[in-house]
Design goal:
- Helix 1 packs antiparallel against helix 3, helix 4 packs parallel to helix 15 and helix 7 packs antiparallel against helix 11.
- The protein is 72% helix and 0% strand.
- The chain is globular.
- The protein has 2 domains: 190 residues, no CATH class; 190 residues, no CATH class.
- The protein is mainly α.
- It has 17 helices and no strands.
């Protein structure tokens, strides 16, 4: 999964930080996802015993999605400008993606790794699908397995922008509850679609071209100065996102809707934590999302990759982990955890590349080998510190410079003013201090 590239604190920054608990959650989730994938190579026997009881991948990505839900809408509302929001996302997500994909291509050329087969799709369609980050929802195999979560992140971004442009962005509880209820109703009604149903109906190439054009139009219109065009672009992007998640995902419809509901649950928690809504509303949303998600998984949770028991346990533990982080948010957060959170995006994207090289050179272990598992982490983490400082951090600095130059002058919107007031209120609260 992934992580969501949604929080970008400075590594080991001194002084108080209200985002330290989110860093810690991202760091823990990233390590769990790494284990999920590396265990294929080094701990296969243990993995076979664990997976029917606890799906480590689903646990990690659900924690990431909750964190994204908490922070992404805050990022948009703090800026008060859709154009600068998309600029920030561009410089946060794409540079490291490009670097890792380039590394994979080089490794394939040198014969130390192998790029997966794309089922006869043209190079152009595969490239365009990945540029949109919607490849998972466009019937295109991911260059790196973990990139599938970025497709759901992109869908969430478009929905957040859509709600912002029509001034419904504060209805996070209603949105989370509605999506969760739709997931449960789809299961109750027996609504089942084959994987990538739209791709099969329209043709993968046509769908990629259509979705790419619609996405570009939606983002460009939502980023203009015209109020009417902003609303049009926002709504168009939201419709695209919902359509692809509901009708062209590779996971069951109910799980795609649950993923979106989970992210908006994170937003509902953010609203309550900053005084924009009450904790009772956030608690109500959490109860509905959890009940609908667990109920949907119980009825239709046995899939080719996990059992219903494993999915439910992993989902509930992810929610509990996020709740524990929230409860401890004003405590002192160990620097090790905040540092892991800072490089978690690198950890998430780089580890599949290193695993591909490992599988292509030393091969997979026939029996569990804890030494190789630990050695993989020992190699991975320093590499990720390097990619953070050489790729992520410079790209974010460039993005911030461009955002500052491009930021609109004058008064911010009513929604932004309200968000700024809430943020000011939050800053007056006591904050944890990093160790």
């Amino acid at each position: 999964m992934k992580p969501s590239p949604s929080v970008s604190p400075r590594l080991a920054a001194p002084g108080p930080s209200r985002l330290g608990w989110l860093d810690a959650l991202r760091g823990i989730a990233a390590l769990v996802v790494v284990f999920d994938h590396s265990s294929y190579s080094f701990m296969a026997e243990f993995r076979r015993e664990l997976m029917p009881e606890f799906n480590t991948s689903r646990y990690g990505i659900m924690v990431f999605f909750l964190v994204s839900g908490y922070i992404i809408p805050a990022s948009l509302e703090r800026r008060g400008c859709v154009r600068t929001f998309w600029t920030g996302r561009l410089f946060r997500i794409y540079p490291l993606c490009a670097a890792v994909v380039a590394g994979l291509l080089v490794a394939d050329y040198l014969g130390v790794a192998e790029i997966r087969d794309f089922g006869g799709q043209s190079l152009a369609s595969v490239a365009v699908a990945h540029l949109t980050l919607f490849q998972e929802l466009l019937g295109t195999p991911n260059l790196l397995l973990v990139l599938w979560t970025l497709s759901y992140e992109m869908a969430f971004y478009l929905l957040v922008v859509a709600l912002f442009t029509v001034r419904l962005h504060r209805r996070s509880v209603a949105v989370a509850v509605t999506l969760a209820a739709l997931a449960a109703l789809s299961v109750a009604a027996g609504f089942v679609l084959p994987a990538s149903a739209l791709s099969d109906a329209l043709g993968t190439g046509r769908l990629i071209a259509l979705a790419s054009v619609v996405m570009v139009i939606a983002i460009c219109c939502a980023s203009t100065g015209s109020a009417a065009l902003r609303v049009f672009g926002g709504v168009l992007g939201g419709v695209l996102a919902l359509g692809l998640v509901a009708f062209n995902g590779t996971v069951p419809v109910w799980e795609g809707l649950v993923i979106l509901a989970v992210m908006f649950l994170g937003t509902a928690v953010y609203r309550a934590d900053t005084g924009q809504s009450s904790w009772s509303y956030a608690g109500w949303a959490a109860a509905v999302v959890v009940v609908c998600a667990v109920g949907s998984a119980y009825v239709d949770g046995d899939g080719g990759h996990f059992t219903r028991r494993a999915w439910i346990v992993s989902f509930l533990l992810a929610v509990v982990t996020f709740g524990a982080g929230l409860a401890l948010r004003r405590r002192r957060i160990p620097r090790l955890l905040t540092g892991l959170g800072t490089i978690s995006y690198s950890v998430y994207l780089v580890h599949p590349l290193l695993l591909a090289v490992s599988d292509g050179t030393i091969g997979r272990r026939r029996h569990d080998d804890l030494v190789f598992e630990v050695a993989f982490y020992v190699v991975l983490l320093p590499v990720c510190v390097l990619t953070y400082h050489c790729v992520e951090a410079p790209a974010q600095r460039w993005g911030r410079r461009l955002v500052r130059r491009d930021a609109p002058d004058g008064a911010v919107s009513e929604a932004t003013s309200a968000s700024a007031s809430a943020s000011a209120a939050e800053r007056r609260k006591p904050h944890p201090t990093r160790l």
